[in-house]
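Hello,

I think I submitted the zinc ion job twice by accident. Can you confirm which output corresponds to this input? Input:
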Amino acid sequence: MITLACDFGGRRIKLGVVRDRTLVAQTVLPARADLPLVERLPDVSRGLRELCASQELDPASAAGIGVSYPSVIDPRSGSPVDHFGKYGDVRWVDLQAWAQAEFGLPLALENDARAALIGEWQYGAGRGCDNVVIMTLGTGIGTAAVIEGRLLVGVHGQAGILGGHLTVMQQGRQCICGNCGCAEAEASTSVLDQLARQLPGFADSLLARYATISYEQVFRGENDRVSRQLAELSLRVWCTLAVNLIHAYDPEVLILGGGVMGSGEVIQPVIARYVEAHAHTPWGAVAVVASQLGDSAALLAAEWILSQRIQRGVRG
Ligand SMILES: [Zn+2]
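Support: Only one job matched these inputs. Its output is below.
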């Protein structure tokens, strides 16, 4: 049995076909998240049909569609509660009805960081472990937790996933969530440009040559003072957040994922050392590891997300 998978990211929409815990085909569309979602759905349909055709599979034979989405998902309705600046109409689009009309299939949604954790927990870096937390570093910061073998969801669907909005700087920057000094507002790709331009000496920095600054450039710039400073500031934020997450959720494994982990060879050892020195875990040591599945984690999670929702009998 196959499952269709769809991962709506800030910059890309990833589509996949999963069969027996394996991603048998995948493709990528530009996100165009500034457009209404209804305008992107025809491309998503076409993409899924083409993927199935490439494997000589009939989409109608799938168990359903598992969707990873960058929002809090209401556990009762199975729908996103807000758009957070992406696909402004998402709250008014009935994705379940779309999947039925388009493919005759059920559809289940899950928060993107939670979907990535499900993928890693079931098939990747957290496999075989009942207590796992993920921290995805990218445009924003996503988190999610599995405690004693159960995915943490919460009554409103937001338990475990708001780690990027834990306060790491009391007098910190205003965040889009309404709070100040959130980890995401202090160190993520969405604020990197502003952070860089505020630093003294930016105009003379190597980073001033780029129209848009990425963490890849920052971590490559060991000989550039502003890059070094930005890297240190960001690492300090992520280290603080890692310890907060460990103190909150009691994991045995902390998985680091997201696009920023393209520089994981620098980031992972720094966070691992900090956690070893600062986390209160008298029972032993938390393993701080890089994601194994990367971009594929949320797609691979589609099978699990769909089967769990169907078992629970929740619409969506
Ligand atoms: Zn926030």
